[in-house]
Amino acid sequence: MMPALSAEEEAHSRAVTALIGERVRAAGGWISFEQFMELALYAPGLGYYSAGSVKLGPGGDFVTAPEISDLFSRCVARQCAQVLRDGGEILELGAGTGRMAAAILPSLAAAGRLPARYAILEVSADLAERQRERLGKLPREIRERVVWLDRLPERAIDGVILANEVLDALPCRKFMLQGGAVRELGVAIESGATGASPAPATSMASPADALQDDIVIVEREHAPNTELANACAALMQELPAPLPEEYTSEICLRLAPWIAGVGTCLGRGLMLLFDYGLPRAHYYHPQRTAGTLRCHFKQRVHDDPYINIGVQDITAWVDFTRVAEAAVACGLDVAGFCTQAAFLLATGVEQLLGESSDPVEHARLAGEARRLLLPGEMGEAFKVMALTKELDGALQGFALQDLRHSL
């Protein structure tokens, strides 16, 4: 059962829903799911990532690998150290609570590989404040290297760019196959809020009338625009098997411009991406008929983005083939692709685990390691991709597994 919303959460959700309703009316009665997702997550002062709420950790909505254990971040630090042996900087995109940075920096200091600067680009003011509080406790010679940015750096950096669970939160388009044609899925409003009789909702309509007074968000189909139609046509041609009728999924057309934009920030070095996702042939498998969209609310995972609007996370798995294509198109090399488990094992998670001599601590770390490594936990669903520019030599984190052939 889904936890009940507090009075404050319910009021906030109503405000976000009202904003979305205004945008739907202004657009003539329908907006794309991509537009809905952007408003629900990023609307200034109201969206899930823009407003102040606890998102990460036991008291939040979901838990990321750095929050599970510092073993993850210490392994990431080892990969960073390999690239930073000739100096350089680190740029972290979406740093969460700052826990990964707080573990990476001391690890690099111990290895004699501290970056000249550790820059953080964070869209959430609440999370940025938590990052400052956490990283402010580091030793002075370390914390003075940390800076916060409000936009991507204008000059290219040499070093490492880190993005842990960033790509899954990029707003995506939704589509379904109907009558042999592609239809786009988006949202409309009901209960007479548009001043006219609404068109019939699809069978997937999911009203959020528990939260709104007279605005009900429903999912509706619409003719795709040229961009989406062309993208879906190209996708269908590349897949090894045809997709069945009523097949529903997502496609993130923002991946390519995101990779291109971040790629311009890399002069020489490594971009390291961590996220749950699949190669394209597995992502759009004929048996995955309902897509990969997932919502996170108070440690519950579900697939209805039209409830708890503005107070829950909305994500979609990453098509890593699209990421690789975008990287190559902007001059980056795909230097590695593997599971999170393979990356952590290659960067010495077992050695780090063995360094603990205290039985209680060792038992705790072993439990954390299982969550990071086991296939039924994060080990297989989460992937790691390395994109490089002007960087020679094999990367330590990809020594045990190479899944690039699957892309």
Write up what this structure looks like:
By secondary structure, the protein is an alpha/beta fold. The chain has 14 helices and 16 strands. Helix content is about 35%, strand content about 20%. Strands 2, 3, 4, 5, 10, 14, 15 and 16 form an 8-stranded mixed beta sheet that branches. Strands 1, 6, 7, 8 and 9 form a 5-stranded antiparallel beta sheet that branches. A hairpin with a 2-residue loop joins strand 6 (about 175-180) and strand 7 (about 180-190).
Shape: globular
The tally of strands reads: 16
Number of helices: 14
Q: Unreliable segments (pLDDT under 50, ≥5 consecutive)?
A: 192-212
Strand content: 15-25%
The whole-angstrom Rg is: 22 Å
The mean pLDDT is 91
Assembly state of the chains shown: single chain
Largest sheet: 8 strands, mixed
* Order of helical and strand elements: HEHHHEHEHHEEEEEHEHEHEEEEHEHHHE
What is the CA–CA distance across the termini?
Answer: 38 Å
Alpha-beta content class: alpha/beta
Share of residues in helices: 25-40%
